[in-house]
Design a protein that fits this description.
This protein has one domain. It is 0% helix and 51% strand. The protein has no helices and eight strands. Strands 1, 2, 3, 4, 5, 6, 7 and 8 form an eight-stranded antiparallel sheet that branches.
Length: 154
Amino acid sequence: MKARPPKTLPRNTVKPTAVGDGDVETLLIGPGTSWDLPGFDFFNLNLQYAIPRYGDSHGWQVTAAWAWRSPVAGSTFVFEGYTDWIPASRGGYHRNLHFNPQLKMDLGPWLNTEPEHLYVGVEYDFWSHKFGIEDSNAFPTRQNTASIMIQWKF
């Protein structure tokens, strides 16, 4: 079933036409929890039901987000990231897993500058069936990318 746009669109809005095109507006309803786990700055776990504004791809989503840090060689090693898992859905949106962790080191102490501003590290991004589109030989939708990162936090 093709998504139907509203009768009038706000200025500078892209008209939604199909899965992967146009605006994506989804209402997520469900409990979000914050866990006080030893060694973690935070660990959040959410179970939500996704209701899209356009289309009929309703379904469950589980999201975990975390940050853990540890002192190493006079600085701080940070492991943070998130995982989104959509096990199944109605309306043609295929199950998918998005895993995006980062491993980074705080360079501030080593450069005699203020800590927690300049980081260097790596990021891995895995997304099976990206945007809920089933992977195929003709149209691959599996993202598998590693990146080197330099991050400045204001």
